[in-house]
Structure formats: C-alpha cells, structure tokens
Amino acid sequence: MLKRCISAEWMKLRRSRIWWILLILPILSVLVGTANYYMNQGVLMKEWYSLWSQVGLFYGEFFFPILIAILGSYMWRLEHLNKNWNLIMSAPVSAAGIFLAKWIVVGVLLALVQLFFFALYLAGGKLAGLTSSLPGELAGWLLRGWIAALTISALQLALSMRIRSFAAPIGIGLCGVLIGLAMFVAHLGMFFPHSLLTMGMGVLSQAGLTSGELLTFAVMNLFYMAVIIAWAVNRMRKSDVAA
C-alpha cells in the first residue's frame, strides 16, 4: 500500500514545475557563494573550506530550508484543491501511508538536491582555481545535512497538511530559519530542527562534531522525526477533513 502511495506521489510530480525550484535554488546558492569567495580570497585563504563557508552559508542557512518549505507546501497542493481531501481520505489507503509516501518522496528529492549541490560546489571550486584536495568532512556535511533536512521536511509537511495556504507554511519555515540561527548562536543548536541543519552541514563552523555531538545529533533528529510524523498521522486519523 505504501508503494502505491509513493507511485501516486511521483506521478503528481512528473510534469510539475517544482523541478525548476530544485535546480534554481542550489545554483543561486553556489553562484552567490562562489562569487563572494572569489572576490575575497585575500581574506578567505583556506581554499575549499573557505569556499564551503560561503556557498554553505547561502545554501544551508537560507536557500535549502526555503526549498524544503516549498516542497512541503507543494506536496499538499492538490489535496487542498477542489475538495480533494474528501477523495483521498475516502480512498483505501491509510493515513500513515499518505503522509509517509509524501515524506519519502521529499526525502529522495532532497538527496538528489544534495548531490546536485555537491556537483555545483565542485564546479565552483574548479572555476575559482582551487587545486587542493576536497575537505575530508565533505561527505559528512552532505549526509548530516540530508538527515536534518528530513527532520525539517517532516515539520513542513505537517504544517502544510493543516494549513491550506501555500505561502503560510513557507513563511513559518523562514521564521524557523531565524529561530535556528538564534539557537545556534546561543549554543543550543542541537535542540531545534533548523539549527540541526546548520550544525550538521558545518554552515557557520567547519569544525568537526565530537562523537558525543554526533550521537546527540542523531538522537535529536530521530526524536523530532518520530514525534512530528506520529502527530501528523494521528491528526489525519482523528480530525475532520477541512475540504
């Protein structure tokens, strides 16, 4: 049943314009970040690490969370149109299957975005004339960024499920970015989804996480995912549909 739900979600996306968003936002991140690095090489002297500090800042702190929020709203767009909620909730599929299918599809898309961002980062470094080896932490940054993105996507999907407006959950996501930044500055980054992304991707600090921090990072992401998904599924099962 879950497989059928996932197939249905892919069919909805086949000819959608969301693919342009998945391409444009990472490209903008790398273009702006690489240009900033290139113009400040006298100060930014750690080559690939310095380049990451620039492209990662624009991508991980702003464009990637915005992309996740847009995806979350888009995945529920059809359900909020033309009383489609009545149809989907009367279909022979479970509430868990509906929500998890959307979350899994978003997770796959975000993994592709991360790989695309890596290719852009590599291309930006080559264009900037970097010849040294890539950072050894790069794979960890990308993987942890994807894990934190899964947490944020669960949150955005839950918000978009309950809020009919396409833009409102995106605005809430932007507020989440600001809260996450404040939490990171206050050394509480492990306790909020958006700041988990900041820490996981090494956006504001390229210093590696300790083993204890890695464990906390994993536990907090799993906790948020489980709580948010459980709440969303329970809400779908017990609440009346607002078609």
TrEMBL record:
Name by which UniProt lists this protein: Multidrug ABC transporter permease
Keywords: Membrane, Transmembrane, Transmembrane helix
Membrane-spanning ranges: 20-39, 51-76, 97-121, 141-159, 166-194, 214-233
Entry keyword Transport: no
Signal peptide: none
Listed Pfam families: ABC2_membrane_4 (PF12730)
